[in-house]
Amino acid sequence: MMKAITQHRYGSYEALTCEEIPKPEPRAGEVLLRVAAAGVDPGQWHLMAGLPLAARLAFGPRAPRDKVRGRDVAGTVVGVGPGVTGLAEGDEVFGVADGSFAEYAVASAKLVVPRPASVSAEVAAATPTSGYTALRAIAKTSVGAGQRALVIGAGGGIGTMLTQILAARGVSVTGVCSASKLELVSSLGADSVIDYRVDPLGSGYDVVFDIAGLRSLHDLRKLLTPAGTLVLIGGEDNGRWLGGATTRSMRANLMNIVTGHRLRPVLALADRADLEQLGALLAAGTLTPQVERTFVLPATAEALRLLMEGKARGKFVITP
């Protein structure tokens, strides 16, 4: 048996329960991990709430099919399923494993990679979803050294990683965030920082990365050079049926037909190559996810609530 954060119905944070359930067993192509830490990301809120409603076609129409929450993970391999090569019991790894808010979790062997010895389990667990989303966002552009990039939402999980990776590539980064996060974003390599509540965003950027999802496409395009690129990462508006990210992506794809700007929505899915690249960036010290706070397993709902209220300076992590 093991402790895990489970969910048997859609709802608000009270739908999450810490309970004892049977420990999972790895199937073919899978490994069993003893979880050391699990990262918290907004995707877990969407699974909890069952929103947008169209996503329930995948999550489960009346209740989530997968009862244990969590995805990002760092841990130790304690079991190996049939057909797995390159991994053995005792290996320290990080990656993605559905159901990582638990003492044990099963992961596809293709979606975990070695954890660098110099990197803590907490930092590694904070990396996967935000990290590979940042990599996919940058891949949508040709931004390089000497160019200007605006990162809206630079103080969150994805934004702090985007800022570090772009700065390491010689891009001049302007980070937009709340006043409480200005010092953090500046310390990560941003050339300038903007308090979104009081300061104008400027203009003439080669690339704008919009993580917050609260500004119109029209307003965002005004921040770009005539041939600039707008990268759309998520969107937490009132899109109850299709979701803010989906509706913005649809509008952006239509606008690409008639505008000189390039509008690029990001769909980030877990990929081993991205995880390996993140491992290399972590080992080199180029990327250091900012873990503001660690929560124990029973406090997972509180961690998720604070994250969705925008109170995380970087990332939150759960430890069993």
Give the gist of this structure.
The protein is an alpha/beta fold and 320 residues long. It is 27% helix and 28% strand. It has 2 domains: 2-127 and 289-319, Medium-chain alcohol dehydrogenases, catalytic domain (Quinone Oxidoreductase, Chain A, domain 1), CATH 3.90.180; 130-265, NAD(P)-binding Rossmann-like Domain (Rossmann fold).
CATH superfamily of the largest domain: Medium-chain alcohol dehydrogenases, catalytic domain
The major β-sheet equals: 7 strands, mixed
- Architecture (CATH level 2) name of the largest domain: Alpha-Beta Complex
What distance separates the N and C termini? 14 Å
Alpha-carbon Rg, integer: 19 Å
Number of domains: 2
Please name the CATH topology of the largest domain: Quinone Oxidoreductase, Chain A, domain 1
Secondary structure class reads alpha/beta
Which blocks of ≥5 consecutive residues have pLDDT under 50? none
**Would you count the extended β strands for me?**
15
Classify the beta-strand content into a percent band: 25-35%
Q: Which CATH C-level class of the largest domain is it?
A: Alpha Beta
